[in-house]
Amino acid sequence: MIKYLVLPIFSYLLGSIPWGLILTRLFTPINIRQVGSGNIGATNVGRMAGPWLGVLTLTGDILKGAFPVWLAVSMTTPNEVWGDLYIAIVAFAAFTGHLYPVYMKFKNGGKGVATAAGCFGVISPVALVILILVFIMFVCWSNRVSLASLAAAAVLPVAIWKATGSEVMLGCAVITTIFIYFRHVDNIKRLLAGTEPPIWE
């Protein structure tokens, strides 16, 4: 029972690690929260500190979602209600840790896309492939990471439902999508105004 209680807490603490902030402080003189969009996620890190640090941030953010969910899957029986519920709790703990990191006083977290991808990629690799294809398609079409992220987030519940058939996972995916859209409110405003910065000029 203790290990079942500990993993969600561990998942949240792991999800709270601000890799973008840590890496930019280690390897650059900039404060990532004061440049560009001010976000600690991979997109802003890549723009402000270079593509390699952006890739490292992306990798760290994905793994901090994938690892605790993988542990939860190994401890439970997926496709059973209680097993799915526990996996969903662990996944959402990592996701909310990234959005509201305890190490940063619950402020200035990322937007959750990479960590959500890590979580749901373990839950359903098939769904992850679909989401990656949607993301790539919208990046190529719009040249905007934010629009591609929003498109992938919109497809997430459908992809998870089709891949797992689990109502619990569907609910978790819907809530995750809502949070991702909430964190992208400023991006949505800039997209509507035509002022969202492109990936490539």
Any low-confidence stretches, pLDDT <50, length ≥5?
Answer: none
Mean pLDDT: 93
Main beta sheet: strand number and arrangement? none
Number of E-type strands: 0
Helix content: over 70%
Q: For the CA atoms, what is the radius of gyration?
A: 16 Å
Cα end-to-end separation: 53 Å
The SS-based structural class is mainly alpha
Tell me the domain tally.
1
- % residues in beta strands: under 5%
Task: Give an overview of the whole structure.
The protein is an all-alpha fold and 201 residues long. The chain is built from ten helices and no strands. The chain has helices at residues 2-15, 19-27, 42-49, 51-75, 81-99, 113-123, 125-142, 145-164, 167-183, 185-193. The radius of gyration is 16 Å and the shape is globular.
What's the helix and strand layout?
Layout: H1 2-15, H2 19-27, H3 42-49, H4 51-75, H5 81-99, H6 113-123, H7 125-142, H8 145-164, H9 167-183, H10 185-193
Task: Give me some keywords for this one.
0% strand, 201 residues, mainly alpha
Short summary of the structure?
The chain has 201 residues and is mainly alpha-helical.
